[in-house]
Amino acid sequence: MMESPPETEGTVSGSLSLGPSWKLNLLVIGGFIFIILAYSLWQIGQLRRNFQNYSREHSRIVSGVIEQNTRTLRLAEEALQQAIGTFLANTAKFIDYLDTVEPFAREELNAFAGETGLAAIRIQRHDKKDNLVIGPVTLLPSLPCDRQTLDYFPEKNLYVMSWPRPEKGCITLGFSASHIEELHQQLSMPALLKAITALPGIKYATIDKTGSSDSQPTASTVEQRIQAGDTVLRVGFDASQYSMRVRQIWRNVLIFSIVLACLGVFFSWLLYRYQRAYLQKITDYERKFAREREDAALGRATATITHEIRNPLNAISMGLQRIELEADELSSEHRELASSMRQAVKRTNTIISDLLRYSRPMVVGNNAIDISLVLDGILLLYKSQCAKKNINVSRQNNLRHPVRGDAELLGQLFENIVKNAVEAQPNGGYILVCCDKAKSHAKIIIENSMPFAIENLSQLLEPYFTTKTRGTGLGLPIARRIAQAHEGNIELRTPKADVFQVTVTLPLISQEELEK
Asked: Which of 200, 215, 310, 490 has a 20 to 30 Å separation from 332 between CA atoms?
């Protein structure tokens, strides 16, 4: 048994170690995309938390504003009531003084009321018959006058003060609260909520009697519920910037992931192609090395066979020939037996010669060869055999450029192919030879009829495989070796069920080389 050299095993191990490299590249790209996705999710979560903190902080500010407004409203109401009470008390004293000096007439009291802005005045003197009232009679309610009082009647929108006179009697004053109500409306909660809604970044602010937890950001609004005293407020903050930022992050992640995935697939595909090409190169090298090793072994075996067998065969052949020539007493039967034995020795010698040709290193000449002339010589050699077997031979020649090589080897190549074509048609058929140019190569197609089927054509190019009852199985393998030695190739095809086709490609000599 012959062992593989260490260099080849090391090369194969190195090539196999590259096996998962393109898969690892895809895995790395997938890892990068996962990291980007995880970072984007963290960024979106951070953005959501920042927005919620922003909304909560602004909610506390709004709550502080509302509480401050409530306190201000309460202080304003107290200050207004105190001012109104002081104003009405001073006015009542002044009216009492004027009425004591000289009692008011109705016209005078009306003028005084108009100047001071009072809605109604009632002066009760010693005798109730002397009472003087201006303004609507039903506007001023009847109040006890034993002490100074100030009351507000919302159904009449009126502040009423009852002021006892130092002497017997009472002065009752009515002050319209319409202006005060307008101030109340301006400082009220609905007006404040309307002003808050008008602020940038706030979509709505309403009163809600059902408090609940903070809501999560939606597509355009995030809502906060604020406890302002006994009142629960619902404040909606504009989340459009948040939503736009989230969409922008996802769009960037999508674009970057697609670009990264495309680049990863593209470079993985390049790496895969490179790896396949590298592995194919290693495989071809191993096959070539194995073939060369097999050829070397065959060469050694052939040399041994040639040395040990060929000389005895020559001696046997010469002996048989001498017996046929010199032994007159031999019968015709014995002469026929000696002739058959000599033919068997000749066939054995032919097999040994084929083995020598297959195993011998080929030294290719560097001459310009006209393929047409080579084929003409081969077809002329087999013309008589083709005629005997009723094989029609035809040619189509469109090749005008020579090839570089060895005429003897190329003649042997085409002789082996033509010989196989002739021997494959014992009952007649045809042989078609076509020569043409295919780019920088000569393309020679030799076609013949095939009376039997071959399952695996590639086996015909392997040594010792033959479909003949007598044959070495080295004809087409030798032809392939000659073609490969000329940097060409042989391809076997069956374009139809009963047609066998051999295509030989050989490099042509360029026009520049011909001119030199």
From this structure: 310
